[in-house]
Structures
1.
Amino acid sequence: MIIAEVRDLVKRYPSFELKSVSFDLESGQITGFIGRNGAGKTTTIKSMLNMIHPDSGTVRYFDRPLTGNEAEIKKRIGYSAGTISWYPRKRIRDIVDVVRRFYNTWDEETYRKYLNLFAIDEMKTPHELSEGMKVKVNLLLALSHKSEVMILDEPTSGLDPFSRNELLNIFSELRKDGVAVFFSTHIISDIEKCADNIVYISGGSIIAAMPKTDFIKRYAQTGESLEDTMLRLEGGVIHA
């Protein structure tokens, strides 16, 4: 089931333009958003959440436009742009007590489920956590208000290989629960491990938005890894 529709997003800056970006996200699917630094990944994600205002285009979630329904829709979306940086010396339990008051959709059973799954100690402070555990706290807070879509900007950046692999396993668990996971990354091996779909952006334009298997069939050459394919495409002329 299509859970998010992005259509013809345009955002112009003096030195960069997002050009008619369009793609869909499906429930129970992991979509990797790939492209080199400066390709437009963060601009797209912020436009999808109305954190910046696109010049044109539309975004719909749950078959409703974001415009006019933003407050209700965002209760069903989890967003993270990296690790937490607020209240570094407050206990996780105290931070959660503050956050839960903002959501009438907060579900204590779901919170406990992911608290145990992520092995988070409520009595610790963010200051005491590893970078990987900080990412998990962000995911915990988002999922505990029953997020049906997770939109994550470079969630594995800066993590050690073990923590990255652990996070990708969490994405797979969320997929089983029907959550749509959309995450940007320039670490192509992460896409190979867990993604169902690929959205590939280059120079502000969507080059491909399709299942990973179709992307490999269309663009990969014999014996190439997905990373090899991306390096070749970025180094030459790309045909959509």
Note: DSSP finds nine helices and ten strands in the chain.
2.
Amino acid sequence: MSLTLLAAAPFPLFLLLGAGSDMARYLIPNRFSVGLICAFFVAFLVSGLGWQALGDHLLTGALALVFGFALFALRLWGAADGKFLPAALIWFGSDTALTAVVYITLAGGVLSLLAFLLRKLLRAWPILTLASPSMRRLANAKQAHAPYGAAIALGSLLAFPQSDLFRALAGLI
């Protein structure tokens, strides 16, 4: 394993922290998104990829930010999800961002279905809501909100080994 691959270590760390926080509290603190972005620049510097690749990654992140804000404006996502997505997708160039988005979308669909089913279960068995405040919030919600940060994390983690940045850090290109 290449030592430069260690520069990628913050990527799964911040994704998992953000997903865990979103699942527990329906909140993704900004520090996880900021951490992802700062760690990206460090990893990119170590990767040896050129200026053109940097521009591609920054453009991917910017487009994801616009997309995230659009979903927030349509009230389909929370603001934290709209910030977490570009912080994750900046790690992908345009060649693998679509793959990540497909994985994120599939994970989000499964997560939304599970949240819907869990909400129905919690309403049928209210005693289960004593387990945690998250369970109570889910049971009392007018609609089942999935912690989409978990989908962003899972989809990003699944797609990352295919990205140019990961392959460069691993010494594969």
Note: Residues 94-124 form the longest helix (31 residues).
3.
Amino acid sequence: MKLLTALRLASTGLRVERTRLNVSAMNLANAHVTRTLEGGPYRAKNLLVAASPLPPDFATRLGELSEKLAAPQVLGIVDDEAPFKEVYDPSHPDADERGIVRYPNVDVLTEMVDLMAASRAYEANLSVISITKNLALRTLDILK
């Protein structure tokens, strides 16, 4: 694999994981918001990620291997359609006529696990970039 291809794949991975970290942090920050500007409780967000083919310039250089390589790409951020959590609390300012308060559909435990996984994947991509940089520098030293 070419060094530039490794860098490109790792950099796209960094972008995806950074977005994943931001979405999880946003969900955690709004885990107790019962009233948004749109009305109603905050709705958790999910990240849509898909594999996209490498750009043509890399594909032509890699030949057969290019059909197997794909870079991650964020397709979008969508609302989680899970139902809101309902809690009986008639003293809450956002309680309805039955005394039920609708809380966001954010699962704090799941979001923490997503944060840890995204953080580890981000670190792994940083390691790939660091190793690739070191390989390039060593190659240049050999050519001197």
Note: The mean pLDDT is 88.
